[in-house]
Amino acid sequence: MEQRVLCAGRSQQIMDSVLIALRDAGYDAEGAVTIDAAVEMAARGAYDALLVGGGITGDDRAELIERVQAIQPHIALAFADGGPHTALTVLRAALGDGPTS
Known about the structure:
The chain has about 100 residues and is α/β, with parallel strands linked by helices. It has 4 helices and 4 strands; from the N terminus they run βαβαβαβα.
């Protein structure tokens, strides 16, 4: 079964690249480019991890995490602060060995 990943960032272009990479690696990944949209997605379905992009920082990052964890308290957290090329690495670290497919 694919692990479900909720990705949150600011840039749709970067988000699209990250989603392609995660899906190619076997994850069921969905993305949002606003905090409200990410929270709405978390409320609609269970996710194994929340991947937060480097564009969401400071108080916005704290708000996103707080709101998502209020809905899904056991969600794993991963932070792709180094750009899209780090997303897969940090996600695998947060989840363990990665997707099981």
